[in-house]
C-alpha cells in the first residue's frame, strides 16, 4: 500500500518505516506536527523547542524539515493548535483536542496524494497514542501500520541498532539518565545503561515510559544523513528533565547496499510456546480435513433472556427470512435494542460480547455492513463488543441468529480494540474488539489464524498450523488485557471453545489448546464454515486474577490461606463463571447431567448454551426439559452444529456451557 509515515525524528517512527518497506509497502510522504511559534504565547519570536504533549514528541522538531531531503520524499508539517482535552486511554472524537490536528494534517496529505492507503506509526506500547491514530485513520479510511506494537523492547532495541538506525539521545527524563552522561550519545553508547536501569527500576528500554527521546541521524533509507552542527543543553526548573536544542544540516552519504533489508529482523510467525507445541504435534494424524454435510433443524429456537444483578444474556434472536439478509440484520438489532430498553439500557457500548451465527458465510459481507450501522450510533464510545462469527445449521426460515451479553454496570466496562497491522495479533478493523472486560471478566473475540502483519489466512501447515496460530492470537489478546500490578497477576480462561470446519481441525484444535496448559473446560464444535475459509476459530471467556486477588485478600489473615483462596479462583459477588458438561447419547442423558449439576451448584444460573449435534433428533425435547430445570430467568442458547468434540477428542451428541454468578 502507498503509505504516509508519521515521523517525530525518533527511532521508533523511523524503524517502523523500515518494516513497512520490508512488508512490501511504499512510503511516499512524511507527516509531522510541531509546536506553534512561541509568539503565540509571548512576545519572543522564536520557536518552542519542547512542549508538553501527551500525544507527540516535539523535542528536536527544529531539524525535522531536513527529513524531506534525507528521505527524498515530500514532507507535510503543521502546528499543534489543540491540547490534551481528553486524557482517557481510548479516544472518542473531541473538538480542540490535539488529536484533531493530526486529522487535519492527514486530510491535507490525502488531498495531495489521493492514492495513499495507509499510515506508518511507531507505537510500541502506548494505548493512548495508538487509539488516537487509529481513530483518525478510521475516519479517513486509512490502514494503520504499526509493526513495533507490543514487541519485546530488549529485542527491539538491539534490532534497531543491527538494522542500521543511527540515533542519539536528545532528551532525558528518567531515573538514572542525566544530561551530562547521556545527551548526544548514540543508542550503542547508552545500551548498557538502559538495560541496567530496566533491571533496577523496571524502566522501559525503548523509552515507552517517557524516560528519553531520540533523533535519528541516519538509517538505510536515508539518501542524505543529518549532521549536527550545534547543541545547547536546556534543563527544566527542577533539574529532572533536560533536552538538546539543535542545529543541523543534511549531507550526502555513501549509497547503502540493497541488502540492508535483510538486516531488518522480523519475528517468527509462531513464538514459544506455540512453535514448540506445533513441533511436538507435527506428524500427528488428525484424519482427513474434509467438510461434512448435515441436515438443518426444522424449527427456530425461541428467544431467551437470562438476568443477573450485573448482566443480561440474550440468545436466539432471529428474523424471518427475506429476499436480502441486509434486511434481516436490522430487524435482529431492533429486537435487541427493544430488549435492552426494557432494562433502561440504550447505549450499544453496554454490550460486551456477541455471537453472530449465519447459515451461509457467503452472506457475511452484507450482514456485516448492517452490523456496522448498529455500532455507528452517535453515543457509542470506543471499544465495541467482542464478537465471534460462525456459520451454523440454521432452519431454512432464517439465515441469521444473534446472541449477546450485556452489562448493567457500563462504568466497569473497558476493552481492547487494536485496528493497526502488526506482528502481534490480527487487527480488528470494524465494530468488534479483540476483548471486552467488565471488572475481572474478559470476553474474548473469536480468533482465526490470520497472519497479523499481512492479514491473510495462514495455509502452509494445514489444520495444525492454523490451530497453533489461532491459539497464539487468542493468548496474546488475553495477555494484553490483563492488569498487572504485581508479578502474580495473570489472565486465566474460564472456558475455551474451538469452532472448526472439520473433524480433523477439531481434533487439532483440542490438542493444541490442551498442550498450552490451560486449566478450564475445553471443547470443539464442527460447523458449516468460518470467516475467510478458516478451519479453526478459538473463542472463550477469561478472568483477570488481579481483581480476584484484590477482592479476596482483605478477608484473609495468613498468607497460606490467601494462597489457597487464590488457587481456587474465589470470585467476588456476581462474577460469571463457566462449566462445560457433555452428553453422549440421548436427551435424557444430557438432561440428567444438567439436573445433577443444578442440584449441587451453589451459584445462580445466568445462561446455558447447548451445542447440539446434527445426529440428534430430539433437540426440541432437550430445550423443553432444560427450561423446566433452569427456570424462566436463565437464558438458553441453542446452537445446531455438525459434531461436538470433547477435551479427549471424543465425539459427543451434546456440549453444554453453563454460566452463572455467585449470588
TrEMBL record:
Q: Which GO terms describe its biological process?
A: protein histidyl modification to diphthamide
E.C. designation(s)? 6.3.1.14
Specify the domain of life of the species encoding this protein.
Eukaryota
Specify the Diphthamide synthase domain's residue ranges.
Answer: 1-237
Q: In which pathway does it act?
A: Protein modification; peptidyl-diphthamide biosynthesis
EC category: ligase
Known Pfam families for this protein?
Diphthami_syn_2
Catalysed reactions listed for this entry:
diphthine-[translation elongation factor 2] + NH4(+) + ATP = diphthamide-[translation elongation factor 2] + AMP + diphosphate + H(+)
Keywords in alphabetical order, please: ATP-binding, Ligase, Nucleotide-binding
Stored InterPro entries: Diphthami_syn_dom (IPR002761), DPH6/MJ0570 (IPR030662), Rossmann-like_a/b/a_fold (IPR014729), RutC-like_sf (IPR035959)
Q: Per its UniProt record, what Gene3D superfamilies does this chain match? A: HUPs, putative n-type atp pyrophosphatase, domain 2, RutC-like
Q: Does the keyword field hold Ligase?
A: yes
Give GO MF terms, alphabetically. ATP binding; diphthine-ammonia ligase activity
UniProt-recorded name of the protein: Diphthine--ammonia ligase
Organism placement in taxonomy: Eukaryota, Fungi, Dikarya, Ascomycota, Saccharomycotina
